[in-house]
């Protein structure tokens, strides 16, 4: 809007100037505002960072969500990987002996700190929980001990969510996106964009009133053609957070605000589509789009979803938008700089071995502390 309409741009800039003047008077010093609009790719990265931060909070409201067994297995494997666990099992050609060896690896509680830090998890608190979970005090946490502790401790549940969190899935009027997160905090992000949104059949007049069965079939084929031409991946595993129009489709299907498996999501979306008002073009289009994207993209057995818009954590309500992601990124970077500076000052002070002192001739002498 600001780029296309000079009059509106001038009005916005006048408002900003007046706001600068008023706040300058209140603060007693000059205040300057700068408008910032991120690129589409940067916005997706910041949204992903916001969700990544929220889903790892121990007190976040995720409803009565039950963590699945594969999530516990993946989290346990990641924590035990720092000890040098066997190579991951990625296909059926791997021997049963190797599979058994992989599952038998314990988590070395003392060595798990590096992994927790890489994931952006508060390692001191998490390590304390892992030590408490080590029932036999051996220093090596077994799979059954880990599972029992996760069922009771909200911080460990947050750790499992963070270990298995793999990205976000979103949809809008003009396009749909899949953001795949790197395993470690600050890792590379892979973005996939489908140039098909829930307004496509409305703009292109694909639907009549009521929407006919053959019109729905044409809309499904258009979505699948777009997924193929956009090289959308298939068989993707992990925990994904659905935002924007994905959330509203899940809300209509009754699967929002809790962790749900892919099978349940697809089943509920199909059931809702069979009962939806056939004159409601937007809802029919959106439910169909979300169902097809999820059916196409994700693994049947090792994928689950949390469809959520408003998050409550730390006594505050958050929206997982790019502004929160930008803030979290800057805040954590500032904290790292502060910690580095504090450590550097302490190192120099503690590392000082001599104190300068003048002798009778006025020459400095060096003596040990």
Tell me about this structure.
This protein has 369 residues and is an alpha+beta fold. The chain folds into three domains: 1-35; 51-87 and 95-163, Recoverin, domain 1 (Orthogonal Bundle), CATH 1.10.238; 169-313, Exopolyphosphatase. Domain 2 (Nucleotidyltransferase, domain 5, 2-Layer Sandwich). The chain contains 14 helices and twelve strands. The strands form four sheets. It has a six-stranded mixed β-sheet with strand order 5-4-3-6-8-7, sandwiched between helices. The protein has a two-stranded antiparallel sheet with strand order 1-2. Helix 5 (112-118) packs across helix 6 (123-133) and helix 6 (123-133) crosses helix 7. The chain is flat and about 100 Å long. Mean pLDDT is 82; it is low at 83-95 and 97-104.
Quickly describe the structure.
By secondary structure, the chain is α+β, with helices and mostly antiparallel strands. The protein has helices spanning 6-27, 40-55, 69-80, 96-104, 112-118, 123-133, 143-150, 154-164, 200-203, 213-229, 245-253, 262-275, 281-297, 322-350, and strands spanning 107-108, 140-141, 165-171, 176-180, 190-194, 236-244, 259-261, 298-307, 310-313, 316-319, 354-358, 364-368.
Q: Which stretches are poorly predicted, pLDDT < 50 over at least 5 residues?
A: 83-95, 97-104
| Number of spatially distinct domains | 3
Per the CATH scheme, the topology name of the largest domain is Nucleotidyltransferase, domain 5
CA-based gyration radius: 27 Å
- Give the assembly state of these chains: single chain
End-to-end separation in angstroms reads 68 Å
- CATH secondary-structure class of the largest domain: Alpha Beta
**Largest sheet data:** 6 strands, mixed
* Residues in helices, as a percent range: 40-55%
Mean pLDDT value: 82
- Describe the strand arrangement of the main beta sheet, using strand numbers: 5-4-3-6-8-7
Give the structural class.
Answer: alpha+beta
CATH homologous superfamily label of the largest domain: Exopolyphosphatase. Domain 2
Provide a count of the helices.
14
According to DSSP, the number of beta strands is 12
Q: What series of H and E elements makes up the topology?
A: HHHHEHHEHHEEEHHEHEHHEEEHEE
Shape: flat
Strand content: 15-25%
């Amino acid at each position: 809007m600001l780029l296309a309409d000079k009059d509106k741009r001038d009005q916005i800039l006048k408002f900003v100037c007046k706001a600068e003047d008023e706040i300058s008077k209140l603060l007693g010093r000059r205040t300057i505002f700068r408008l910032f609009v991120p690129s589409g790719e940067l916005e997706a990265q910041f949204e992903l960072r916001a969700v990544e931060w929220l889903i790892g909070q121990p007190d976040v409201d995720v409803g009565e969500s039950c963590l699945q067994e594969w999530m516990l297995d993946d989290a346990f494997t990641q924590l035990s990987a720092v000890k040098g666990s066997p190579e991951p099992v990625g296909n059926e050609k791997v021997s049963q002996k190797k599979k058994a060896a992989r599952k038998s690896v314990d988590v070395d509680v003392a060595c798990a700190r590096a992994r927790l830090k890489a994931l952006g998890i508060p390692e001191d608190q998490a390590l304390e929980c892992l030590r408490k979970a080590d029932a036999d005090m051996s220093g090596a946490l077994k799979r059954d001990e880990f599972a029992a502790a996760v069922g009771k401790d909200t911080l460990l549940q947050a750790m499992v969510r963070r270990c298995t969190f793999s990205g976000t899935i979103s949809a809008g009027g003009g396009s749909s996106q899949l953001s795949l997160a790197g395993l470690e905090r600050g890792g590379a992000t892979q973005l996939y964009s489908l140039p098909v949104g829930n307004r496509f059949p409305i703009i292109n007049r694909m639907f009549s009133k009521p929407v006919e069965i053959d019109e729905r079939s044409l809309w499904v084929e258009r979505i699948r053609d777009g997924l193929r031409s956009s090289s959308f991946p298939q068989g993707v595993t992990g925990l994904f957070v659905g935002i924007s129009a994905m959330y509203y489709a899940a809300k209509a299907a009754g699967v929002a605000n809790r962790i749900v498996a892919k099978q349940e999501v697809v089943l509920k979306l199909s059931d809702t589509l069979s009962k939806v008002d056939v004159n409601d073009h937007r809802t029919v289009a959106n439910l169909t789009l979300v169902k097809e994207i999820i059916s196409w993209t994700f693994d049947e057995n090792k994928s689950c979803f949390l469809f959520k818009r408003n998050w409550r954590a730390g006594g505050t309500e958050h929206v997982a938008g790019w502004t929160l992601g930008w803030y979290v990124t800057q805040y954590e970077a500032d904290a790292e700089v502060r910690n580095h500076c504090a450590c550097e000052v302490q190192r120099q002070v503690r590392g000082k071995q001599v104190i300068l002192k003048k002798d009778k001739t006025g020459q400095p002498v060096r003596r040990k502390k």
